[in-house]
Structures are given as C-alpha cells and as structure tokens.
Model the fold of this input.
Amino acid sequence: MGLQCGIVGLPNVGKSTLFNALTSAGALAANYPFATKDPNLGVITVPDERLDKLAEIVNPQRVVPTTVDILDIAGLIKGASKGEGLGNQFLANIREVDAIIHVLRAFDNDNIVHVDGSVDPVRDKEVVDVELILKDIETMEKRIDRLRKQIKSGDKEILKELEFAEKLKIILEEGKTARTMITDDESATFIKQFQILTGKPVMYVCNVDEASIHTGNKYTEQLKTVIQKENAEMVLISAGIEAEITELPADEREAFFKDMGLTEPGTYKISRSAYKLLNLITYFTAGEKEVRAWTVVKGSKAPQAAGVIHTDFEKGFIRAEVIHYPDFIHYKTEAACKAVGKMSTEGKEYIVQDGDVMHFLFNV
Done:
C-alpha cells in the first residue's frame, strides 16, 4: 500500500517513547532534543476483533492482521522552516507522509525539561503549525508564480487553480492551516496537488499523566477548544503506561490494564485512528491455511483489492465472490452462506465494503 503516518512533535513530549510503544521497538530514546536524527520507520498492527472472530470459526494455520507504516520524524524546533536544527529534513519527511500524528505534552513533571520552559500544548501545537504554514506559504508563492506564467494560454483549469492558490495563500498568511480550506473534493484535490503540509489529515495525541488518562486535564481541555475547527480527533494516552505495557510479558498485560481501569493499550486506539485517518478499510480472506486482513483505500473496486494480494490477481481478474462479514459469522462457512444465497458474485465495478470476506477468481 505504501501509505504512511508521520509522528511529529517538539523534543521531549514523549514522541519517541510512544513510537517505541507503538512498534514495540525496545530501547527508549534519551531525553534530549534531536533524539531521533534518522526518521525511524516502524510497522504498527491494527487490532481488529472481526479478524479474531473469523479465526475462531475457521481455525486456520495462521492469522495475519493488517498494519500501517509509521515514521518517527526528528523533533521540531522553532525556525525549522528556515532550516534551523534538522528543519529541512523534518519538512522533507512530513512531505512524504500521508497523515500526521501530532504528539503534545499535557503533563507536569519537573524531571523532564520542556523545550520552552513550561507545559502548554496549545502553544506547542502552534509552534509546529507556524513552521509548516511558513513552508506552505513559500510553496504557494512558487506555485502562483508558475501559474501566472501559464495563464497566458487561457486554459480555464489553470485559471481555476490560480484562483484557489491565491485564496489559499491568504488563508495561510492569516496563520490558518490549509485543512480549514478543505470543503469538497475539488479543494482536497488542489491541496494534495500543491503538496501542502498543513493540508494533511492530522490526529492529536495528548501525552498525559496516569491520573488524567480517563478524563483528561486542564491542558487537554484547552487543546480541545482550539482544534474544534479542524475536524481532527484527539486521543489521550500516557506514554509512560504504554512503555510499561511493552516491557511486560504478554500474559501479564491484561491484568495490568484492568488495574489501570483500561480495556486495552492506548496504542490500539492510535493505530485504529491512524487507519481511519488514512481513509483505509479492511477486507478479509478466510481459508484453512490463513485468515488474513487486507488493506484498501475506501472506495476501491474489486480488481484493486485483488491487486493488494498480488499484481497478477488484478491483471487477470475475472470475478470476486463476496460474503458480508455478519453473514459469515452467522452461517459460519462459505458453503452455508452460498446455500442461503448470502454469497454474491461481483465483477470489476464492485466497490469493496469494510469487512467483506472475499475470494478472487483470476487467470494469468
């Protein structure tokens, strides 16, 4: 698939601790700015109870969940847009990802220095936003210059693009992100074409202390108010708890959650939200050898879904046999679903639904 989430934040907000917990990547980074000079690429598993239920019924030799790639991007500091610190690298890494997980510190702890001397997630968010907005303004200035040169051809499409580009530049100069300009498919397409950093979908992860994990605190309340206009999700997590969970043997983890009043690790919430943020859905294949979750972009047609398994499946696609997940759970076998007419045969135009159990026929 190749879709990636980038995990960003100021130094010392718990970003690397969280990245390591998400990818269970062992040793935690030291407590200093520029902790992660090279962006680390990790893979996070997306937990899905539907997969477990299918596996219970089919009893396959193996079960394979779906995953999302996550990039740990170097800690940002003020002045990144001018190349300060690892600014250029940071911005180049953000350009490569499809969505952003922005980690913000929302806990007091005198032992962990805050790069700006005090805890204020709203200010921290703005520091990152400002650097991205400044870079976006620069990108738009170049784009507008190029479009103005092309306008002489009288092409209506170029004129439309230029109008949008000029509006977007004004919004950015007012200190607003490009996300606030996405109102329909056309605006979303333009912003994607322009490679605008503040147009990427974002999720805010507030790193809180143990006491605030369920209800949040004054810091998370302040942030909630600020992000309302962005249509972005906010997730509360305690990186400290998550780090402890990854250190525990698997059989002790459940008791640990219960003691904390949690139903599952916070990293599960993040991986599911990241999946949603990337506009992904899951379909399943279920056989004796394996029950597996596969990832497609929402709105994909059956041949594209087949291509995720193997390019030959897409090239030689004939048809797909589809059972909706609730039907499979109810009737328990492919044969039983077929007998009661709950298995449909779909052609090239079929749009895959989240949870479809699929079997592809192809010739090569």
